[in-house]
Model the fold of this input.
Amino acid sequence: GAQRAVALLRQLAGAYRLLCQFQCREAVDQFKALPSAHYNTGWVLTQVGRAYFEMVQYAEASRLFEQAQKCEPHRLSGMELHSTILWHLKKEVALCYLAKKAIDLDRQSPYSCCVVGNCFSLQKEHDTALKFFQRAIQLQPDMAYAYTLSGHEHAAKDDFEKAMSCYRAAIRIDERHYNAWYGLGNVYYRQEKYDFAEHHLRKALAINPCSSPLFCYLGMALHANQKTLQALEMLSNSIKIDAKNPLARFHKAQVLISTEEYETALTELQLLVEAAPKEGSVYLVLGKVYKKLGQTNNAMIALTRALDLSPKDSQQIKAALLNLEREDNAEEEEEL
Done:
């Protein structure tokens, strides 16, 4: 009996260690190797859900957090991550329901406050969201994640000084809290301080080297800092980890365009159109690439599609269409 208990604890500890090292796929495999009676518990399902969250597989992560709640209906720990997943999935109704459930269980819990804060954040009510994240910090001053969520809200309001203060507070509590390192890198990127952005994003990647979004944002910062080859490498790494990351593919195409590798850029954009067929900005760039390759008809089709999908960018798209028509007319005149 004692030996079986020790073996079980060793297996749990090994899986949890892998998760803490962000070796998420290996952690999931080790958790799934547990006996069914131990796998189907609130704590284990929450850890597996967290692993899928880190791998940006939000739908599967959400399913596991729901399963954990069925096993342990009164479990609050982990709800803050579940609410972040629902925020990313833009599931307002499900997030509102989770917030009500958390408040009903314990309105004085920092986890409940984070869930409610995320609920208001999704509705773009940043000041109200901040009140709940600050309440979570009051209830649990060493909750690094609450500081990071506060930082994200300040950043959404373009209040960069307060955002950075929150991210630094999170790092003081837990220096392996990569989300806060990313937050600082993102603020520096938006301030066009690309060297600082690169430094902080590399810090985040050193902690979590399996994150497709982190590679993507580092690639963006490197490209903005004229480090083209490094940017291409990072964006390729991002796509290698998650082939469905549209932002990484879009920025990789932009880097390839800047190096005049139009054929390769076209391949990336065509894959992107399949993954995100309703993104006007993709068709705009696609139209420009077709134009560079001398494929005027395809350029016209892509730009017209961009105009249908992105009315807010109509001036830019109409200008591109006008230039295309002028060049087309000039070519016809030359032929005559």
Remarks:
- The longest helix spans residues 314-335.
- The chain is about 80% helix and 0% strand.
